[in-house]
Write a structure and sequence with these properties.
Belongs to the AccD/PCCB family. Pathway: Lipid metabolism; malonyl-CoA biosynthesis; malonyl-CoA from acetyl-CoA: step 1/1. It is an enzyme of class 2 (transferase). The protein is of the alpha/beta class. The protein has 2 domains: 23-56, no CATH class; 58-277, 2-enoyl-CoA Hydratase, Chain A, domain 1, CATH 3.90.226. It has helices spanning 3-12, 18-21, 40-45, 61-68, 92-103, 137-153, 172-190, 205-208, 231-238, 249-254, 267-277; strands spanning 28-30, 37-39, 75-76, 109-116, 119-126, 157-163, 195-204, 217-220, 226-227, 260-261. α6 links the parallel β5 and β6 (157-163). α6 (137-153) packs parallel to α7 (172-190). The protein is globular and about 75 Å long. It starts with a helix and ends in a 6-residue tail after the last helix.
Length: 283
Amino acid sequence: MSLKELFNRNKRYPIPSEEAKNVPEGIMTKCPECRKIILTKELMKNYKVCPNCDHHLKMTAQERINCLMDEGTFVSMDDHLQTSNPLGFPSYTEKVKNDAKKTGLNEAVLTGIGEISGMKVSVAIMDSHFRMGSMGSVVGEKITRAIEEATKLGIPFIIFTASGGARMQEGVLSLMQMAKTSVALRRLSEKGLLFVSVLTHPTTGGVSASFASVGDINLAEPKALIGFAGRRVIEQTVREKLPEDFQTAEFLLNHGQLDAVVHRAKMKETLTTIVKLHTKGAM
């Protein structure tokens, strides 16, 4: 490279100043959609929705609780449950422990009892930061117990899904959770109790094919990816080009698979209205 080329390159990509290098880590966040740099503090005030392009960034389970539940009312359940390694999958135990340390969760879903606008509900919130929200035996067990607790207490059950699907490291044990959670939901329904499913980005695989899609009311966040198999797999199977918005929340809404697409800023208000309409004596 000539000196002239090197000089021109350095003009395009200037060396960061010492002041820029000293900016605390995490103070700024780049939107993955429009690439705009946003103050993390302002982004959190905006429910982790980009103020420039309205892209809904992924939330942790705890962030979701903070936005959704009345302050100080949420009590988590089954934090003691631990994932085993039934198939002896290499490094699986270590990866689960690392994710637990990183997220502060015992598994890829946080469950518990709390209040929304003064009304008691049972909730399950999946976290894609833990093994991409994949569903293993503990995830299925925690969701099932949260449903059973709702049935026992006679209160609504609400789930926020975010998952890459069934966890391959646990084989058929992870697939069994599809049936187990569905049976628990059937018993909830037989008691005449409400189940609201909120599908967030992404909700795919065995999760989308089981409890995520069978709510009495199915909601989703804008532009969330929702589907079973991948786009390329489907196109190769049906041998035709799929629409550009295929497997988005808006596509599913237009085809009758969702009841509404709800902006995150209006999610608590929407759920409050739904729970109030289905709770005796709440009106």
